[in-house]
Amino acid sequence: MTKQEKLQDIQVKPDSFECSVTADITVFGYVDGKLKILLIKRSFGHFKNQWHVPGGVMEADETIEDCAAKVLFSLTGFRDIHFEQVKTYTELDRHPLKRVITVCFYALVRPENHPLTLRDNVTSIDWFDMDKIPEKLGYDHEKLINEAYLFVQNNLRHKLIVGELLPKEFTLQELQNLYEDILDVELDRRNFRKRIFQMDVLENTGEKKQGVKGGPYLYRLKQSKAIR
Amino acid sequence: MTKQEKLQDIQVKPDSFECSVTADITVFGYVDGKLKILLIKRSFGHFKNQWHVPGGVMEADETIEDCAAKVLFSLTGFRDIHFEQVKTYTELDRHPLKRVITVCFYALVRPENHPLTLRDNVTSIDWFDMDKIPEKLGYDHEKLINEAYLFVQNNLRHKLIVGELLPKEFTLQELQNLYEDILDVELDRRNFRKRIFQMDVLENTGEKKQGVKGGPYLYRLKQSKAIR
């Protein structure tokens, strides 16, 4: 191949290499100050006897975000979940059937809002403590989960990705408790509040928490900054 | 389609939908306290008369990271650049030829280390101030650049993504100056140092900066935490 051909070769052409694309969704559940991960087993297909995160293939008429919502609903029944991209995995041999790249997403939910039910073709579904994930997950999902977990922890440090974990209106102490739970650290009250206000994502409702005399103000996420 | 078929439909099958995948690399250059973005024009192909970031198609035998390195070398001659994924874009009509999804990367370099040369099929290459990006970039690259820029700024707040922007050994003041330049803010010296040490990414070389009497210690990135 000449230098010229080699350069032209990086352009997209009608016969450029193509592969399938999947969405895999790491759904983290927050229960009593601990993060858990949602895993399933399916009744057919690759790794049908092994736990893995919900995932499935993108079609011609959908974006990868459409695909993630479709897959999550098909396999878990969960609807209207907020999720965000973590990373795209493209290792050559990551899928046993053919070349498949996957876009990994994370979501962060309260499990009590999403009762587990067995959908067709799903034989098992359950929440697992992060330190009790089953061995030998399907595909490269152990790696996906570990990297998504790090991502969630890191992002919590500079973004407000509380998702549905807080009520619509909450006190600063409730927010701090959530952060301390997920990050597994104790935070200095004054520094925490300073950093949260620097993020400019909260607004004071002007209301105070009821049942607490002279109690603390309730805050809510600013509309434009809310992630759901 | 029955419910059963619909569920089976999300599994990867031999005839599942396939599309081409590209890597686009937003290369930010740090010059005199300002971030600039590297743009090129090519001599053929789509958007050949418009500025866009270096990008090209992934082949069957390479990961998207291999692809990004190949593309960057082909179009700019840059080698051994550290880059990281930002986000994957999958809108249905984002490429004029066919369905093409792209994985966007960012890199952060010192332009003086990478003199610009015109490679075959590249008709123009230049650094642009972030507030002077040309109008009507090719593809969806305006969006890619804006989101990558936000990503770089956000990441700098909790990770040490200084890349090649600092010498191998540097003082804490030099590090703080870099952060202040890129984030375009003034940082409190004590808080800055506290946060940097919390990251646990630096080690004290034990050497002091020469030419400054009783001068400040030189630090370096811990080997395991260095990004290059």
Automatic annotation (TrEMBL), chains A, B:
Record keywords, A-Z: Hydrolase
Keyword Hydrolase annotated: yes
GO molecular function, one term: hydrolase activity
Pfam families (UniProt xref): NUDIX, WHD_NrtR
UniProt keyword Ribosomal protein present: no
SUPFAM superfamilies given in the database record: Nudix, Winged helix' DNA-binding domain
Nudix hydrolase domain ranges (all copies): 20-151
Matching PANTHER family: ADP-RIBOSE PYROPHOSPHATASE, SLR1690 PROTEIN
Protein name: NUDIX domain-containing protein
Organism whose genome encodes this protein: Flagellimonas aequoris
